[in-house]
Amino acid sequence: xxxxxxxxxxxxKGSYGTVRKVQHRQTRSICVRKEIEYKQMNNxxxxxxxxxxxxxxELKNKHIVRYFKHEHVSSQKSIHIYMxxxxxxxxxxxxxxxxxxxxxxxxxxxxxxxxxxxxxxYRCHYGCDVDKVNLFKSSPTTPQINxxxxxxxxxxKPDNIFIENDVLKLGDFxxxxxxxxxxxxxxxxxxxxxxMSPEVLMxxxxxxxxxxxxxxxxxxxxxxxxxPFQAKTHLQLQSKIKRGVIPNLPESYSxxxxxxxxxxxxxDPKSRPSCYDLINSLSIKFLRKExxxxxxxxxxxxxxxxxxxxxxxxxxxxxxxxxxxxxVKQRETYCQVQESKFKExxxxxxxxxxxxxxxxxxxxxxxxxxxxxxxLNYQKEFWSVVEKAVxxxxxxxxxxxxxxxxxxxxxxxxxxxxxxxxxxxxxYAESPTPISPQFNAGHxxxxxxxxxxxxxxxxxxxxxx
Length: 465
Hints:
The protein is an alpha+beta fold. It is about 55% helix and about 10% strand. It has three domains: about 1-85, Phosphorylase Kinase, domain 1 (2-Layer Sandwich), CATH 3.30.200.20; about 90-280, Transferase(Phosphotransferase) domain 1 (Transferase(Phosphotransferase), domain 1, Orthogonal Bundle), CATH 1.10.510.10; about 400-465, no CATH class. The protein has 14 helices and nine strands. It has a five-stranded antiparallel sheet, covered by helices on one side. A hairpin with a 2-residue loop joins strand 7 and strand 8 (about 165-170). The radius of gyration is 65 Å and the shape is rod-shaped. Residues about 180-190 and about 415-445 have low confidence and may be disordered.
């Protein structure tokens, strides 16, 4: 069994299966599933199911219940047929409602049923849809069969006419017969007895006009709230149908409607009007034209509403875009303001940085000057200390030396002083050539010069250290 659909409540039961409402799991759309069990069927009944599937695939019309698909469930020995779901119920329910309240069905609604069912039967009998009404053009000749088969429904009754959004749809083609040629006639006894035509009831060859008889019986029941032929036994019912005598319809309905219903319930099938004859009669042509205009107006109204909705949507989108544009402009203005603030902050930070750099340079220069001054003061203090130490040491050394000028020989002979030896002034000891006596006799060495040299040597020594 397919898991595509979720089973819902059962809306009908028959001898060979049930009719269940199901819902598509993904799209959540509602449709009807006919669950037909074939394990107790004979070959003829199984072939009838196959024939029904062939017919459903061929029929595509606004006023025929739409066929979607079918599947074979071998485990249950059944066939599931998925078809369109009509939320308005069937016509039998409407007749029961009017009968329970003892009120008449509006004539306008009966005309709607007549015209829409003729549209459905036209598709079945002639294999094509009805052309649009042209009141200023003569009706063409009877259309020829342009397909390989003619479909006869054979079971038209209020229970098989369904309603969906004020559109009537013909359904349940389980007893439909497909004729292979135009001149072939069916000979199978089927259908609901109350709406069965005399030729079908008498097991005589019948043609598509047998559906017109059944449609006339349905229209009669809508006017009278009861079928035209009723009896307690099957033989009595058969006798009444063969005579074709029906009670008069209420005069509250128009003469045209009563005449059409009486023409449909005609015993002789040759005298009975065809679907083409009825649909091209003057009264029905005017009604069809009115229905086409009403449908055109509904389409215009629907299109107008769609255009209004589109306009509202476009207006909302325009308002949204305008608000979005205003928001974008506001954000742009905000960004510009923020950008200008950032630039001002950047300029102020640059100025602050430059001022801090200048201040830093000034402080650096001041610190450099201060450090230089400290260094100079330190040097001055250092040299003053050095000079004092040198002066002190020189003075101490000078105390032990004789005062005044002395002869070089005396200095050399002085055992108590070693200044000349330490400063390489011992001419006799370190000179490669001895100083001549004439030099000794003729030259004097001043002690003050020696003092200066000694002082300078001491100073240099302190500098090195």
